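Hi C.,

You asked whether I'd gotten around to modeling the 293-residue construct. I have! Everything is below, sequence then structure, no commentary in between.
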Amino acid sequence: MESSEKKNLKVIIISDGTGETASSMTRAAITQFQSKEIFFTRFKNVRTKDHIDAIFQEAAIHHDMIVYTIVSPDLRKYVHEISRKEHVRSVDLLGPLLTSFANVFETEPDYQPGLLHAVNDKYFEKVAAVEFTLNHDDGRNLKSLDECDVVLVGISRTSKTPLSIYLSLEGLKVVNIPIILNMPLPEDLVKIDQRKIFGLTIDPDALKQIRQNRLSNLGTNATGDYADSRKVSEEIEWANGLFEDNRRWPVFNVTNIALEETASEIIKLLNMRSRNRFKQKKRFEKKKEETNS
């Protein structure tokens, strides 16, 4: 009869990524064995047979258990073989699932380790970008303006906020700053990379209609000068004057343009500039090497 005495066990997590998946699944399983004392050791980024050999030598001596998530079919096969050779108990958490999906889709997996971690990193980057953007809506918290990726500048109702949110969902930290008639823009704008700044403008008739709709949605008949034709034209002229003074800022006319289209153009321009900076850096490094040699 099997002894019911408490037995210690060391579980070794092996992964060609971070090992978070294997660790989480294993810990979930051992909650069903609360009377047992279990210790964990995790080996991350295991991608060579030599590394696996070293781990199994220790596991065989101490009768440890191996739990692994390895994408490479060759390394998974090697772990299986060495487990039998060294009489070490091992559990492949990922292999059977990959095989099942491959059979369903009738195609081979990408076999790229660490993709889940990369996806999670991207997700948290987007969450941080959205939080930053919300905290910098309508010209707020300009002390941290230098941390942004994009600055949107425009008068009221030129889609600054929705465009900011859309861009933040692409992982960009966005600040939007309102242009107010007869008031200068914040001085902090001149202190940052001017290539981050984008102007938004709109045709007067379209802006007037948008503002009238806004007032109607708010349930008020008192329009004041918010949707007045003359006031609208003055605001647009004032904004265009500021854009003329800052010609390095690309200006997008958002009249009857889908949000996605404007966002796509901004992202395209940012990517182009990034590639140009990379090429310039490479040319500089090459020239420096030629000079030194």
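If it helps when you're writing up: The domain at 123-285 is CATH 3.40.50 (Rossmann fold).

Thanks,
B.
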